[in-house]
Amino acid sequence: MPPEMNLAQLYLDIADVIIVAINKEELVTEINKKGCEILGYEKKEIVGRNWFDNFLPVRIREEVRPLFHQVMDGDLRLEHYENPILTRDGKERAIAWHNILLLGEGGRPSGTLSSGEDITERKQLEAELETYRRRLEQIVADRTAESAEAHEQLDQEIIERQKAQAGLELRAAILDNAQEAIFLVNPNGNFVYANQAASTAYGYTPDELVCMNLRQLLRPQDAPLVEPRLKEIFTRGRLDLQTVHVRKDGSLMPVLVHNSLTKTPHGEFIVTVVREIAGEFGPRWLLEQLPGILWTTDAELKLTSLMGAGLAALGLRLGQDIGTPLAGFLEASGFGAGAMPAHEAAMAGNTASYEIQNSRSGKTYSGWAAPFRNLEGNPIGAIAVVLETEKQMTKSE
Description:
By secondary structure, this protein is an alpha+beta fold. Helix content is 34%, strand content 31%. The protein has helices at residues 3-14, 33-39, 43-46, 51-55, 58-72, 120-143, 154-176, 196-202, 206-209, 226-236, 283-288, 326-332, 340-347, and strands at 18-23, 28-31, 80-86, 92-103, 109-118, 181-185, 191-194, 238-246, 252-264, 267-276, 292-298, 303-307, 352-357, 363-373, 379-392. Strands 2-1-5-4-3 form a 5-stranded antiparallel sheet, with helices on both faces. A 5-stranded antiparallel sheet has the order 7-6-10-9-8, sandwiched between helices. Mean pLDDT is 82; it is low at 392-397.
């Protein structure tokens, strides 16, 4: 098997998302290891079977099936879509799909290649977060509420205050019994509330946490990412990310973080729910910790993924610039156009190495680009890795 085919198969097997190919007869022609794990079948039990009849819930089959054929006929472009799949034990898992059309002989559509992220837990977390958000709005409102009107009787005011206090204690008790760490963050990144689970997870007392800024829970190299992330939350209303937090004792904690903007009569706040990632680091996490930068492109050389620990050194972040032309990304991030010939060679079916210098960091990077192929062996994109070398850019360079 050529090295690039080994690379493509390795990429499929370590991907932390479902990757499945379906031909125009609706039959599964390829599925990766993650897809088999989520569905609960061995690969040989999936390949060759009708995707819609066997792996989609009955209630949505006739909704999704026509969309697939519209895509195959060229009447519909459906790059992103969400629908549940049916596992072997009869349970449903919510999947967010990214779809591309596979072309066969004569450039005619031969099937689809889809990557799917399991968002079941995220959906559940969003439902839980909505409940928390309503409760937190009331807590903020109660804590900042103006005193009763002056004409109210003193006794009535005392009674009302006692009722409000009881309500606050009840709501705080509910939040403190939540398993996830929950923070309420103001626009400057300061904590104005932290539940008991946050205190337990990070080793700080609740009083210590409300005197802290979220930057103090990050590694030094991640602190510069706070400003753009806050801006994105206040612009888009939400941000989900996977990162590393630091406990009071200095130990590292890999976490999934869900940020949601909430608007109250007293201003805008961010509700942050943090869930620690249990067990060993998975393949996706390992790729994100790669001491360099890894990206993939589609056939038009537009970015389809971007990861690696080397992004932070250039002021970039995971997933940034997805969908933009590779040439524009390279210029904007300081690499220039030196890597483009290698990617063009990859689209022609060849693996090519290159060396480029970054004008931002002044450092030299070694890299390679290889073709990413479809089931027919035709290049449908490129995969590339760049690693920092010891060589430094000189003034003459």
